[in-house]
# Entry
Amino acid sequence: MPQFICARQALLRSLTWRYLFNIHERFLHPDELFFSSLAYNPNLKMLGACLIAPAPISEVDLNYLAKFFI
# Structure
């Protein structure tokens, strides 16, 4: 609910573009989804580190495993 209030205030103050471009900064990024190294992870068969096991096949088919940040 706070995001809707914040979005409404941004629209009323004509800060729409600034709000939309900075909305990603409002979300927290858990460490288990942050690939901070280029070490090979044999469980995921890709570069990076992950603290949890991959999601079940039904969720992996949705093309979402984690976000990459540089």
Remarks:
- The chain has a mean pLDDT of 57.
- The chain has three helices and two strands.
- Residues 36 and 48 are 7 Å apart (CA to CA).
- Residues 1-28 form one domain.
